[in-house]
Amino acid sequence: MSDATFLGMPAFPAAAASALRDSQLRGNLARATGTIRSRRAAAVAEQDDWEQLREAGRAVKERTLRHLDRYLLQVEEKVTAAGGKVHWARDAEEARRIVVGLVQDTGEREVVKVKSMVTQEIGLNEALADAGIDAYETDLAELIVQLGHDQPSHILVPAIHRNRAEIREIFLRSMGAYGTAAPADLDDDPRRLAEAARRHLREKFLRAKVAVSGVNFLVAETGTAVVVESEGNGRMCLTLPETLISVAGIEKVVPTWQDLEVFLQLLPRSSTGERMNPYTSTWTGTTADDGPRAFHLVLVDAGRTDALADPVGRQALNCIRCSACLNVCPVYERVGGHAYGSVYPGPIGAVLSPQLRGTTSDVDRALPYASSLCGACYEVCPVKINIPEVLLHLRARIAEEGRGRLVPKPERLAMAAARWVLSRPSRLTAAQRAGALAARLVARRGRVGRLPGPLSRWTDTRDAPLPPAQTFSAWWKRTHR
Q1: What burial letters (b/e) apply to 117-137, b meaning 16+ CB within 10 Å?
Q2: In the structure, what pLDDT confidence band is assigned to residue 407 with cuts at 50, 70 and 90?
Q3: Which of 253, 280, 304 is the last residue of a domain?
Q4: Mean local confidence (pLDDT), 91-109
Q5: Does residue 328 surpass a pLDDT of 70?
Q6: Per the domain annotation, does 115 fall within a domain?
Q7: 2, 119, 392, 397: which has the fewest C-beta neighbours closer than 10 Å?
Q8: Is the same domain home to 300 and 428?
Q9: Which of 304, 320, 337 is the last residue of a domain?
Q10: Name one Pfam family in it (predicted).
Q11: Which domain holds residue 208?
Q12: Is the CA virtual torsion 252, 254, 257, 258 positive or negative?
């Protein structure tokens, strides 16, 4: 099993071109992201100290990453003292092996799952299936994705690419094969869809002996794991089973409960536009006569240490998975999450995935270019990750890595021509005049028309205004004699 690519998809340009032809997808995305954006804006506007909170969140994250080794050892010490067991996984393969082994040790053949990005990242469901173990997603959106034999396309709303009518069809077609079937007269009313999901999941909650969860935060001073969610399914998974296996990336640590309080204000406003999370569950090891009898914490590296070593790129590890950057990104809104070829889509995926997986594949080398660099992601990030800065940094790294490979001849010629033109102001002025004239020759409805040859790839994907009749240099000379 390989975790180097996602869905075996092509690089972003090809995947995005296919997604752009899906008008239903674009409509679903536009409606959903627009709604979430407006709710977030309203919730943030209520907070007078929002910018101070953002700065506090950034400072806590950066301080934690500087001393991550110390805080991770503290987590292990506290979890062990509270009756839990900590497992360390260097990569996705080792993490899968640990979790599958822990489930097999219980003798059970099924698990219930709390929504978790890191288990998707390591391909845990597929590994469990290969071992003959059924994994049931209990988050509503993840359930929709699983029943539809699909893949998530959003961090917060994995089924954002589906509308109510499509969800109804998925429930009617597939729910019975996994357990309690959907009512035959089910319509696309959200309340009835939610009720069908509740009835379907209830038998899973009451029967399962093993649960697998992700972790939103790990409080180092007490070894406490934290999960925030909106439906209550997480609470059911964290309390009813006899064995709980929590999988967390090593960057999820926060030093103290006081630090956690900052993120419990930032996360709900940035993700769902709410003042607080409907359900915030915390657990520390095991407790007699309450909750699971056995608790295992699997700490996953899987490229995070490599990212930590990059002074610029490491800020991507500050991410708290709120998805605010996805909801404002003009690129994501038009192509959706699947086009990124990664469990982490959108702007954060474009900077996180290439660092976790490396840039050896075409998919990962293309991701830093899947952005217009408009900066909207940076403006809304609750922990102030400068995503445009990291994108440019990764582009430079990929270009530098490419120096050792044969650069295509057209690109070499184009760069040589650009160097020649930009080396003298007179050449640049002449090129600007020629370019303006050429643009007017192919003008169409006041915009640049289709350019010939390879340049058509640029004009076919954007509406570009005609260049001004007068360049800045010419205006300056005329007005500042």
Answers
A1: bbbbbbbbbebbeeeebebbb
A2: low
A3: 304
A4: 98
A5: yes
A6: yes
A7: 2
A8: no
A9: 304
A10: LUD_dom
A11: 12-304
A12: negative
